Amino acid sequence: MKTEEIEEILLSYGEGAISTEQATKKLKNLSYENIGYARIDHARAGRQGFPEVIFGQGKTREQTIGIFEKLVAKSPNVLITRTNAETFGDVRNIFTEAEWHKSANLIRVFRDKTELGIGEIAVVTAGTSDIPVAEEAALVAETMGNRVKRIWDAGVAGIHRILSEREVLQNSRVVIVVAGMEGALPSVVGGLVKVPVIAVPTSVGYGASFGGLAALLGMLNSCASNVSVVNIDNGFGAGFVASLINRHWEENTQNA
User: Fold this and answer.
1) For the segment 20-57, what is each residue's pLDDT rounded down to a tens digit?
2) Residue 160 burial by CB count (10 A; 0-12/13-18/19+): exposed, middle or buried?
3) Which end of the chain is less congested by CB atoms within 10 angstroms, N or C?
4) DSSP labels, 165-192
């Protein structure tokens, strides 16, 4: 929880603007808020550097909206991943500034655009079919205060395509590489840069790719020492970790 939020509640209580019961409830809700089907973690930004994100898949529209209403009241930036246009329609009825990003199936409220990153994050795809996962990573990284450079369709089947982007890659502080099929691109990129490479296997590919498992195993066995791997199709996780790596903590921890 943020120190200024606690101070505001205590000041209001001291001035008699709120009762003991109201102050107790407000302090309790700074930690988490129980709405029955979800316990909304309002303290996550202070602990982890970004507010709780809503994973839309598997939730009803009513559940997603209920959680969103609580989060948007306390957090300047809110993300809903793995969601759909119908849910976005409901969200817009509550908060008209919400954005729908069809390419990533993601809803975003982006009010605080403070730049928190030291450098730029590059997000690279092996193929056009990998863009939905990569765009999720890029949007998450942007919402967490980073400058993001997108490089699409630069896979190893045409190695000259990624080599032509060497300058962008080498000027980045973190590189996210998204690939399906055999998942070879992160190793190539890892050999071109001196910064962390976050590899994201996707479920793109024919039968023997086993829904992304072949790419996952290939990335885990990368010979490039600067490559780390997140789960299959986990663009959100890649964008989040890249943002934490890129963040200037000494100046920004208090404002997270």
Assistant:
1) 888 877 766 667 778 899 988 887 887 788 888 999 99
2) exposed
3) N
4) THHHHHT-SEEEEEE-TT--HHHHHHTT
